[in-house]
């Protein structure tokens, strides 16, 4: 790569619940790409300092989001959010400033590889597309999403369907994305798609003396 390069090539990984965003991010990481789980990073900030949020969580979600020592519990909070899409949307809106802060810190920091990737479920809904060179949308068949949600979060099929239907449609997100990765089937097929796209990007950057 050119020694005069001033910035990194930025990939935003998004997708609806249980489509396989984390699989795509960790696959990129194995291939040498510097990655960030933006939601995880923002949640860590919140757990360390709940005052970073503009609201008191217990005012909106009650004491059920606290552990037995009165501290914010990620497991309890996630249980509330996955059981109630409306509360989840409200929480994501309030968490958005922390997400943006962590994404910018990661994308524009001096450390890391020349290709960087951020996993952010609400990347398109929060209108942060401008931070990235490419948006990768990870998709899965709705039936697959529902089965994964039931298995992962112990939801009923009806609850899982309600959660899936509460999100932007995959078709809407695909129309706003640069790449689409289908993760409806086995892991190997997904990894092959990621490898092919990454090789294409590296080749493009090399030709541009990035």
Q: What would you say this structure looks like, in words?
A:
- With 210 residues, the protein is an alpha/beta fold.
- The protein is 51% helix and 12% strand.
- The protein has a five-stranded parallel β-sheet, sandwiched between helices.
According to DSSP, the number of beta strands is 5
Unreliable runs = 1-6
**How big is the Rg?**
18 Å
Output the helix-strand order.
EHEHHHHEEHHHEH
| Terminus-to-terminus distance | 6 Å
Spatial shape: globular
Main sheet: strands, sense, barrel? 5 strands, parallel
Q: Helices and strands: which structural class?
A: alpha/beta
Mean residue pLDDT = 89
Number of helices: 9
Fraction of helical residues: 40-55%
Strand order of the largest sheet: 2-3-1-4-5
Beta content = 5-15%
Short overview:
Helix content is 51%, strand content 12%.
